[in-house]
Amino acid sequence: MAPEHAGQPGRATQAGQAERSEQPQQSAEPQLQRGLHARHLTMIAVGGAIGTGLFVASGETISQAGPGGALVAYGLIGMMVYLLMQSLGEMAAYLPVAGSFEEYGRRFVSPSFGFATGWNYWYNWAITVAAELSAAALVMKYWYPDTPGWVWSAVFLALLILLNALSVRTYGEGEFWFALIKVVTVLAFIAVGLLMIVGVFGASPGLAHWTEGEAPFVNGGAGILAVFMVAGFSFQGTEMVGIAAGEARDPATTVPRATRTIFWRILIFYIGAIVVVGTLVAYSDPNLLRTDISDIAVSPFTLVFERAGVAFAAAVMNAVILTAVLSAGNSGLYVSTRMLFALAEQGSAPKFLARLTRRGVPLNAMIITILVATACFISSFMGDGKAYAWLVNASGLAGFITWMGIAWSHYNFRRAFIAQGRSLDELPFKARFYPAGPIVALVMCAVVIVGQSYLIITSGGGALDLLSSYIGLPLFFGLWWGHKLITKSPAADLSRADLSAPKIS
What class does CATH assign to 38-487? Predict the structure, then answer.
């Protein structure tokens, strides 16, 4: 790993190590390059959370729970994400490593838990890259309906490879601009929507859509629970800042800055968008129930822009959604590559995957990730695509498992810090509401996971539906317990847990 600021409090280790750290580096081995600035970190997290879940599926959440129910659900999930980002920010600012939650789980829960967390996260985002390639092909059918979808998927895969293979700075710049397009679109949408609400563009419906029928709370608590889970999936990706911290410049400063701003920006985007859609479009509008990414004309964003008289609204939103899809694929390839690299560094994956190019890119890890993503993508064309559907379902709960791992690791990280007589003043960033924060976040994640079964059962789903939705859990526990059975590794001893931080040069 790359070295760190020697002058930061609490970063000194034993005297011999301190002396060696002051000597010139003898090794010419390539290292990860700390080329990501604060603006990159912020946009990586914002871009991870703003995607098709907001642009396309937000209408469905309002139709299920009404505008009030959607606001409550997204507000609760927003609170959970805030607590998780506080936990991750504290650990990532102090321990800015590429393995992030895999490393934290290994140090502060158990080596087996870290092993399972790392492979779970790598698999999740490798599958996501394949899913985004499929989505990009669907989006392109809007303009080129007669071109085979696999052609566009191949073109976009080549673009993602280019952005990730050159350097971490190239990836960061690409993601910055992808995310900026999404941010500008959401801000424009909220601004236009508010002007429509006050009557600048046409007649305002006022608050009529908030009181008609069952509004503002449709389907009661069941409706809120359904949206609660959708919102949880929508916010996934914010944790990417933890991976990116391993290549961030001055992480003790940039990670806390990004952590403080990410939550409020994302919450404003989601809450603002739901208020606009819920006010301007009735929850009973049948268009809100249609979430096919290839039919962009029914996106709530498109509906509102068209009613405001924005020319070519559907074409503009299609371009924005294509940007969102590419952003997710770009970041998915980056974080899965870095996680596989970190696993190899810890000996949990073949060593050749830890090799870096002279620009500090783990190219071998990226190639393997691309091959796996491509194989998953190809499986979507085989038979009726059921194999691919099961692969996607297997990664469905991976994000929530990662979030639970972050909360658990942070709870133990702080306990280890105190147990070893360390002062909290040594932390570049301190999470608020500890210990309640990680505990509440852990419980809320568990509610989302369990709630999924409730919705499947009440909607008439059978055993096969339950199995396909929960297949990711036995896979994770199989990795965790299988590693423990083979290695006999004990749980972390917090009084001796490794609190050494990398040195930043």
Answer: mainly alpha
